[in-house]
Amino acid sequence: MDKIQFNDLGAQYAALKKDIDAGIADAIAGSHFISGPQVEELEAELCAYTGRKYCVTCGNGTDALHMPLMAWNIHEGDAVFVPAFTFYASSEVVSLCGATPIFVDSCPDTFNMDPEDLKKKIAAVKAERKLTPRAIIAVDLFGQPVQFPEIEAIAKENDLLLLEDGAQGFGGGIGKQRACSFGDASATSFFPAKALGCYGDGGAVFTDDEKLYTLLKSIRVHGKGSMKYENIRVGLNSRLDTLQAAILLPKLHAFPKEDEHRNRAAQRYAAALKGKFQTPVVRDGYHSSFGYYTLKAESEEQRTCVMDALKAAGIPSIIYYPCPLHLQKVYKPLGYKEGDLPVAENLAKTVFSLPMHGYITDETIDYICGVLQKL
Ligand SMILES: *Cc1c(COP(=O)(O)O)cnc(C)c1O
User: Fold this and answer.
1) Radius of gyration of the chain (CA)
2) Catalytic center at which residues (predicted)?
3) Does the model's pTM come out above 0.90?
4) Among residues 121, 126, 194, 251, which one is catalytic?
């Protein structure tokens, strides 16, 4: 067996080489490297795929989260509710705006933001009267959308804006509604390791709100007005390269097949590992795109043993994420302490992710499960 990859981008390239190479050659021949026609083509296809009216591609997933917050004028004195168990970018953008992230605990089964804890945290901020509650950033972790029916109701009840962090959620869904179409705006990332990744940095914002769409297009290019050299607000320089759009187009076309493959792989993993570990829980009517396949061990010690055994057998595994955000050094001034968000803290100590991608073979999965079953 070949060396086992955590995410086998080489296998994907081998499968899509003809179309990717042709796209790159076309983009170079066109020499329209910034905002070339492939970018608009991709935005239209992303709208069709997600069911959103508008898509604004940009430089990376972090900017895709930052841009709607800028457009909504989130600023110092504002509170934005963010899960503690996620990648730092989800809260970093709040801090970049000068606002304060208020961390929310996770559901022990799906690992996504807990709607009940969200309600408590909103009530606490309101009671304290120090910060103005403005927005919720809900993160679709590991491929499964957050409980949006509940979260959307909470946002509405409390007059909060809702931003979906779909950096890992792209391809997931609830019923017929796809990820990156929930809330007032959604963001995704095309970082190479994501389920839909390019060959560098990239991202996109989605919305159905025409006014926000216009603002986002301005923010993407230095706060431009009707033309590039008219500057009407402070923005960013955050565009998706034409080359990356050309690479993403064939990858988006292959995405549904890869998504199916990952879901079959997840079932195969679960069939072999249920009982031994807590396998991923996908809620009824929900679809996960399984960008990551994440197990939960019983304890930190068990996780260490398991990951050591995997390593010895030549199997890569990664911890997403070893430290919840409220306990990160950067947020020390916010005054959180251990025990404040017990579910998120426990997850950080016990979860680990196994190799998962759209080209993983049954043979590889069976080998990995064989190693795990023997422990
Ligand atoms: C990857 C990721 C981001 C950031 O995306 P970049 O393209 O790396 O900037 C944000 N949120 C989550 C949940 C992510 O996984």
Assistant:
1) 21
2) 194
3) yes
4) 194
